[in-house]
Amino acid sequence: MAEQVADIALIGLAVMGQNLILNMNDHGWVVCAYNRTTEKVDKFLASEAKDTKIVGAHSLQEMVAKLKKPRRIMILVKAGAAVDGFIDKLIPLLDKGDIIIDGGNSEYQDTQRRCQQLAEKGLLYVGSGVSGGEEGARFGPSLMPGGHKEAWPHIKDIFQSICAKSDSEPCCDWVGEDGAGHYVKMVHNGIEYGDMQLICEAYHLMKTGLGMDCDEMSEVFTKWNQGELDSFLIEITANILKFKDTDGSPLVEKIRDAAGQKGTGKWTAISGLDYGTPTTLIAESVFARCLSSLKDERVKASNVLEGPGEAEYSGDKQAFIENIRKALYASKIVSYAQGFMLLREAAAKFGWNLNYGGIALMWRGGCIIRSVFLGKIKEAFDKNSQLTNLLLDDFFKDAVGNCQSGWRAVVAQGALLGIPTPALSSALAFYDGYRSAVLPANLIQAQRDYFGAHTYELTAEPGKFHHTNWTGTGGNVSATTYDV
């Protein structure tokens, strides 16, 4: 019988798994490492984990036998069938009250299903978002755990010791029930898509519209990183732009302009559509990647389709750079506003009690979207926990107001120069739509009633539905109403 020495086990020895194990070891936790390919366990123990307290296992039975009770097992494998496969193998080996933690990018619906499945077996399940990439996993990720709350006291000390810290506060706290942790991570990744696309559009405007070279642009991003836009993604963009290949030329300019994706941005956009929440900037960021992947088609189209005659800006260069900064900042505010709108809608749908200020704190350090900006989001929700939209907070209302003229100038100039700005433009369109007391949807309702008898409400009689025989030849039977 193996000795129960390990505080937690981790299944999956890819980069994230190995680094999380080493991080836990640094903080005094005894970790049992397991991988389906057991040779990887031996290699890890003989190399990166050499001279540590980390132990290995060559079977799930051996791994479970080495764990202290309640047993805590973290799975870090490819989302989907692989996670279900390990859960099915673990269930017969575990006792009531033992805990399984999924730290991968699982879809929140899968986490909801697994919570229910394991509750029926008397086991506790946690679906936790893990953000920060390789370095974050090793030295302090942002962690977003959700699921069976009874598990939290048993994993809290481990999670809060290994996570990133912001102003001495752990970037990890309990998020909410069933799929809440993975849902919050999904929205985090959607916002990440938006941030990256916005930065790329700023880069495109400076490169093509202003004819700037990579060193010049790197200096601009470095300067921006010292102000309101201070963030991990702005910082690494400055570093990427100044990085030289072996021949002394910028490496970034040699990289094929076809962006990949793993699905979490798409899931966020789909969720926005499912719950009627206009996550337009995130959706445009996903579509921008899809368009980029049509590289061969774009090359052919570039020789056929005409754009404006003038593709370079002829006005004040420094003023335009400042306007790009303002457009980027205002659009970033809209991106987060949309993300938190979606979180609020999902919380209402699933009965989650989400702490929005706490979520902003979790994202304040360790994760890919970490930025000074997130501190202001936490302050907004601390001031008003019932805030319906970040744009209505005084700080963000004033910030967007101060950026507005530059933002509009950039979107307009992008159109005039033929430089696509899907994220910057959709953010502005959302802002103008959200601040409009009246939108032209009355005409849509009239059209729907005209061709499909879908009915409409009158401004003077909200809640009462009417149908009009618009042509005099239609009937008086109307369709049942349904949500947008």
TrEMBL record:
Pathway: Carbohydrate degradation; pentose phosphate pathway; D-ribulose 5-phosphate from D-glucose 6-phosphate (oxidative stage): step 3/3. The active site is at K185, E192. The keyword Transmembrane does not apply. One of its GO terms (biological process) is pentose-phosphate shunt. Its EC number is 1.1.1.44. Substrate binds at N105, S131, G132, G133, H188, N189, Y193, K262, R289, R448, H454. Catalyzes the oxidative decarboxylation of 6-phosphogluconate to ribulose 5-phosphate and CO(2), with concomitant reduction of NADP to NADPH. Homodimer. Belongs to the 6-phosphogluconate dehydrogenase family. This is 6-phosphogluconate dehydrogenase, decarboxylating. It comes from Cherax quadricarinatus.
